[in-house]
Amino acid sequence: MSRVSVRSEALAAVAARLTEAAELLREDAALLAAAVQRCRSPDLIRRPGLLGSWLRVEADGVRLTGPTGLWGAALGLEVLAARLSVTARAYVEVERAVTAVLDGVHRGAVTAARAGLLTDGPRGVDVRPVPVDRAVPSPAGPADLVALGEGLDGGRVRVVELDDGAGGSAWVVAVPGTQQWSPRAGDNPFDATSDVRAVTGDATLAAAGVVAALDRARAASGRARPDDPVLLVGHSQGGIHAAALAADPGFTRTHHVTHVLTTGAPVGVFAVPETVRVLSVEHADDPVPTLDLTPNPATPSWLTVRAGAGPPVDVRRHALSGYERTVRAAEDAPAGAVPGLAAWEVSAAAFLHRPVRGVTEVAVTRSAGGAARLGRVRPSGVRAPP
Amino acid sequence: MGHATGEIEALAVRVRLARESVEARRVALARYALVWWEGEAADRYRELVDERRAGLARLADELGWLEESVVALAAVARAEGAADPVREAS
């Protein structure tokens, strides 16, 4: 199955706006026709100096309200709207199929769990502080934020506290990608189990570990305030967790997530609220961002930068280092070359060019016992139509 | 001001509002190009959007010319009314 190329809801929304524009043009036509009609007074017709000019104006006025004028333009927009509506209905069918596929994957994971595969099982999560082994400079742009994901082996999550320039702190949480590929869950929760579970909407111990890492860093700082802005950045599976947390009301109720930055991550299924500015970077030939079969929403708050060309078949294009280079190239491109990127950077001012107050790292592991009660965060980006 | 002159001036205002409305729709249409949508259907849709935008631009031009004609007509009507206040007031 190929990836859905557009969302039906976006097409339907534009169709509705086109219909509205057509109605407004038709109102203009009616008002103009009435104004022309009111001018046809006997007094005007009796005045030879005006009559000739008036007849020309009247003819033009009538023509411009009719099929070659405002009515015609309105009809043209309505035809366009109808065309989009038909297309949107077709895409609804495709989206239903995608939803069915993802549900199938989830059912498959549930079945596999009976054999002890692809499940967190009755385990909890441990978060253990580890030494920070690298200097973290002040992030100057999205590429530096992406680079915070380097070196997060062993299930490590990195939390950077920045001076937000307004007396408070801003928090950047760097979430790692997949590190273990066995279908049987091991100690490191950033594994295939979390991949499958997270993309199909289950809460995971890996995400719980990310939350614990942030809460631990905030508590240790002593400066944290509830309204401190939080930016979640993640590559691959890390991007999935970032988007899933930003879409989880349980998390956002207590953490003021303002930004999400993902690279090479299938995140289109997550209904991230429009109060969060999302930047998603995808290599066109990297297959991983297409795994959810769903495009990212085309909304003002969600900027997707797709780089390169060709079908999504080259797994080498999935490497974090490659994404870091891509984002850096986008930053260095002439102004306007990557539409929306500069605006995203402006919106992320609390996280860029700000002094680093502290860096903490924790290693997240599945604990031996202590069943964690994890819920299900249903991805709702692709919904069945009502 | 006489009835005829007043109605012609009202028509000039209505034509101007219609032109502004058409121009606003033309500008808005540029935002509906759905540049992120790919494929043959998307390309055809964008062609149609371009056609509609060109049509609205032509219509706005024509409404602009009509507006000029109506304004000129109103000026003549005003001048005639001033020269013949009895008929203008009738």
UniProtKB/TrEMBL annotation, chain A:
Q: Which Gene3D superfamilies match?
A: alpha/beta hydrolase
Organism in which the protein naturally occurs: Phycicoccus flavus
InterPro entries reported for this sequence: AB_hydrolase_fold
Q: What is the lineage of its organism?
A: Bacteria, Bacillati, Actinomycetota, Actinomycetes, Micrococcales
Write down the superkingdom of origin. Answer: Bacteria
Record's protein name: PGAP1-like protein
